[in-house]
Write a structure and sequence with these properties.
The complex is a heterotrimer.
Chain A: H1 16-35, H2 40-68, H3 74-113, H4 120-126, H5 154-177, H6 181-212, H7 220-252, H8 262-278
Helix pairs in contact in A: 1-2, 3-7, 3-8, 5-6, 5-8, 6-7, 7-8
Chain B: H1 19-25, H2 29-57, H3 68-103, H4 111-130, H5 156-184, H6 197-228, H7 242-259, H8 262-276, H9 283-296, H10 312-324, H11 326-340, H12 349-372, H13 374-380, H14 384-414, H15 420-447, H16 461-490
Chain C: H1 7-18, H2 39-72, H3 88-116, E1 124-131, E2 134-139, E3 144-148, H4 152-157, E4 180-183, E5 188-194, E6 199-202, E7 209-212, E8 218-222, E9 228-234, E10 246-252, H5 254-267, H6 292-306, H7 308-311, H8 329-332, H9 335-344, H10 360-372, H11 384-390
Parallel strand pairs in C: 1-5, 4-10
Antiparallel strand pairs in C: 1-2, 2-3, 5-8, 6-7, 6-9, 9-10
Helix pairs in contact in C: 2-3, 6-10, 10-11
Classes of the chains: A mainly alpha, B mainly alpha, C alpha+beta.
The structure holds heme-A (HEA) (2 copies), dinuclear copper ion and copper (II) ion.
Amino acid sequence: MAHAKDKYYVPHGSHWPIVGSIGLFLTMIGASIMLNGSPSGKLVLVLGLVVLLVMVFGWFAVVIRESVDGYYNIQVDKSFRMGMFWFILSEVMFFAAFFGALFYARQYSIPWIGGEGNNFFTNLLLWEGFEPAWPTNGPAEVGGDYEAMPPMGLPAINTAILLTSGVTITIAHNALKEMNRRVLGLGLLATFALGFLFVGLQAYEYSHAYQEMNLTLQSGIYGSTFYMLTGFHGLHVTLGATMLLVIWLRVLKGHFTPENHFAFEAVAWYWHFVDVVWL
Amino acid sequence: MSTDTLAHDDHHDHGPEKGLKRWLFTTNHKDIGTLYLLFSLLMFFVGGAMAMVIRAELYQPGLQFVDPAFFNQMTTMHALIMIFGAVMPAFVGLANWMLPMMVGAPDMALPRMNNWSFWILPFAFAILLSTLFMPGGAPAGGWTMYPPLVLQLGDAFPFLIFSVHMMGASSIMGAINIIVTIMNMRAPGMSLLKMPLFPWTWLITAYLLIAVMPVLAGAVTMLLTDQFFGTSFFSAAGGGDPVMFQHIFWFFGHPEVYIMILPAFGIVSEVIPTFARKKLFGYEAMVYATASIAFLSFIVWAHHMFTVGMPLSGQLFFMISTMLIAVPTGVKVFNWVATMWRGAMTFETPMLFALAFLFLFTIGGFSGLMLAIVPADFQYHDSYFVVAHFHYVLVPGAVFAIMCAVYYWLPKWTGHMYNETLGKWHFWLSAVFVNVTFFPQHFLGLAGMPRRIPDYSTQFADFNWVSSVGAFCFGISQLLFAYIVISCIRGGAKATDRVWEGSHGLEWTLPSPAPYHSFEEAPEVH
Amino acid sequence: MSSGFLKWPVQAVLTALLLGQSPSASAEWALNMPPGVTDISLEIYKLHMLIFYICVAIAVAVFGAMIYSIFQHRKSRGVEPAKFEGSTKVEIVWTSIPFVILIAMAIPSARALIQIEDTRAPDMTVKVTGYQWKWQYEYLDEGISFYSNLAIDSNLARQVKSGIDPNSVDNYLLDVDNPLVVPVGQKVRILLTANDVIHAWWVPELGGKKDAIPGFINEMWFRVNEPGTYRGQCAELCGKDHGFMPIVVVALEDAEYKSWVSEQTSATAPSGAADSAGNVQPAVDVSRDYSVAELLEAGEKSYITHCSACHMINGAGMPPAFPGLAGSGLSVGDLAAHIDIVLNGKPGTAMVAYGSQLNDLEIASIITYERNAWGNDTGDVVQPAEIRAQR
Ligand code: HEA
Ligand code: HEA
Ligand code: CUA
Ligand SMILES: [Cu+2]
């Protein structure tokens, strides 16, 4: 190998970032135009997403090739790990904003609308008769009558699914360390299958809530926080499961060694993060 | 594309590519740093031009040039562009240029992502600026984007939200890169406590960025869904609260203002010892003070919202925590003074800017402290007193520090000395007129002039007039800065490797101009 | 002072050179916070001065050391740099001293704050509602209620390139049609809320401000010590005309206040829905036919006060948010639809229901004006009786 292992690998120029920027640009513009009510935005949005997808594949292909060809020394590997760690932390903070909103609504705004604290007149003059409670769709009953999501039933099953998938991915990880490719493949397969099962069940749960319980995104603050939190989580599960799928394909192609499997670990961490957020 | 054809071997002796491709595809920390800095200069001028519109309209009572709706667009865009387009990218640009050189690394840790985090920005600002031409105009609800007002925005609304998302993504990637570079790429022997202060302050700033930029993204996402998908986060009718947005926003917003000042602290901590020819006084205390400021910045956010009707206990808590920030900041100020004390100072342009920073930032800090006193803030809040406060910490604070850094490191970047005489002119004009511009705003605020108004009662005429004259002169002086920088890139007296007599640190061991790849062989630090 | 584009920078430079007169001769160079006319405002003023002097004292010490050092410790004086680079003892000293100072500042601040937040046991209560862009005052016990708009002469002068010198307008931008009237010496509690976006109610001389937030009610209070007129402004960005919704508070001696109240309550004669909101406008005789000239004159005034913020004085509006009225759509179309929108508003837009804000005569004259101004020339004349009929 031409590249000296003791040197930190600094890649040459790459066109993928600028492709990514253009993709992002188109996606954002397309989404905006669409939200402003003009259907032509959809076209731009789809175009942007395609460019982004091409970018992701192209970029990762380069990285994978470089990795397989042994360009990365331990220090580079460590950079990737640290990068992934801090990226996950930023995702945690994104969720924190929504948890903050949930906390604030339950702890402050709803009691205040109900007249607590220094808000006696808020209740008396503006929202007379509103009793603070959770769940609620607010004093104006935004979105109409609805049924709250019971904690038992589907959500419980989904919790079990995610917990199990946390176990299977750990099994896969251990198998990778012992170079047991069969168990590794099976573990991965089980994990992302569980992931997709989770998403499927969640989709079912949503449609049930929309059609039979009239619990929608518009159902006041309860609907808002419920769907935004579970929705973004579902999005992340989908993403994580897709990445696991890619890893699985790479395992089938014989990638990864006990020493060199950053991508695997990154996705595994991501998966654990997704698990933890759900809880 | 060279990356795609891995056939080529050792690339370290390659120079930059030629032409446009070099800048579009580059993974080199110096190229990317240059891009960031030039972009930031451009945005400084765009945001500054908007400030000139503001000051022209406020030159005298009555509405002479723009209608009130456009005035609000100017205020909002001015702030968004200055904060996200000028100051933050300038600091990231400086980090890109200097961090590898200061910690003894060949490049940034994640070079391709580095390119991406820059190239998102021009697109994000293209989106933001394009809103000026949309039906309903550009964002006009203030840079703080409070609902329900911001929801009245026309077509620009989703563009605003998504451009903020893009800026956030760029900042987060930039921050990750900086953390990883500092934590993983230091030369052997450079323990954290041997690291210079500029990397230190940036390390802490990067943590702040990672912690708060996603929160901003969350906040604006909630605005988006409230507007288009019927959620009720910020509407009392559905059980939410408009003030909830303010809490989430300022949980980002307050650390954000320290994001704009901590790297400035780092720069000043490099420059003062150089020109005092004396080591930085209390190095470790400086590091701990920076960390304390960062920590405290997470628990003071509600001092921007004392008038929203928080419970008394909340007001007291946020008042006291805010006041406490003066303690570590004071430690820094005292340490800088002690560094100067019994040194052997000379006063080249970077030192002049550093000293002006010291004086004027402290004045801004004092007015900040006054704002923290809740009963008094009931009078100050949303008046020009606040405008005076934050321009003192932002313009002679953050912006002066950036200029200080540019003058200080420009010879290392270009291999040429800048024109010292012109540099001094630039300094004195800036230092005088920044005060003429912003000092009278204290009086205006105290006398009762609210901020964000395009027209005012005649009793405020005099100081507004002074402030506007100062602003025009300050603005014109900045043309000099652009001229000095450009002509220094073009040519000038040859700079030595050490550049400054009292310089210290790894970056000065490299030749001037610094080679395309910084430390190919890691230097040993003892 | 409506000088041309080129003239003003030239003038600026000239004036700067002469260091002389500023654009307005009548202005005072107010430098500091007003001590105000309530105990609270005085308390805040003292607190403000206290912190200010503490900061000045610290500044003198810190800047003094810096300046001394800049002059004494410069290389050109041939000094050798000292070698010291830190001392834990000093660090501890300059951490603790500011800490102590801060605590000393926090104590009186907390005391004042507790007093300010004590809105209990008021003598009277006024509910204040912020609108884009006016205030509504409702005296909860007296049953008085009215809107307070920017005074018409300020409103005319503040139009872009109006050609009217603001210096010729009394209390430019700080004057309203209907001020809030309160008695001196009584604890007035203000209940603040807003109808559309967040506003803030601020009269510096009464001590501080509070936000008016839609969906919530905030409380504040004041007790005015001296009769007089006190002026302030909306202090939270609330859109286009945020700078044009002033607040005027008139504090009267008790007897005068009482007679003002009885005047208001008797003036509120039955006239459609307007009176249920307790409007202060004098009674309207709906049985009378008003002359076209009368309606047009009253209509222009009312239009400027109530409608011009959005639809502009020249009726051009600001599309797409605020539709124009000149030569288009509503004002030249179906009359009944026109009346309906003015009375009942258009949900989801800034067009509120004026039926509850204005009396029959005002609405009739505004509509007559709109249908005949700016070349609309429909010739339609609307009488108050028709408005009453359509309510
Ligand atoms: C770089 C940016 C920056 C920095 C560093 C600061 C620093 C501080 N700021 Fe400022 N601030 C802003 C940017 C910044 N601010 C902006 C942009 C806004 C307005 C946002 C908007 O609404 O649009 C704002 C608004 C703002 C408010 C809200 C005002 C209002 O809207 O009503 C408050 C209130 O507490 C405040 C306080 C402070 C304090 C206490 C500090 C402290 O960190 C200052 C500490 C420094 C010193 C005190 C001086 C040095 C110390 C000594 C010499 C030691 C001895 C001193 C003593 C013991 C007194 N700031
Ligand atoms: C880092 C941030 C930053 C910086 C650098 C500045 C720089 C300046 N700001 Fe800004 N400002 C903010 C951040 C910043 N501001 C924020 C956060 C707000 C609050 C917004 C809100 O309320 O939402 C604000 C609001 C604000 C207001 C209040 C508006 C209002 O409340 O209605 C004013 C008014 O004077 C003002 C003035 C200025 C001026 C004169 C400069 C000058 O320093 C600018 C100097 C630079 C130039 C002038 C550009 C260079 C020169 C040219 C382009 C050549 C042409 C020059 C001429 C023709 C003279 N700013
Ligand atoms: Cu109402 Cu500002
Ligand atoms: Cu703050």
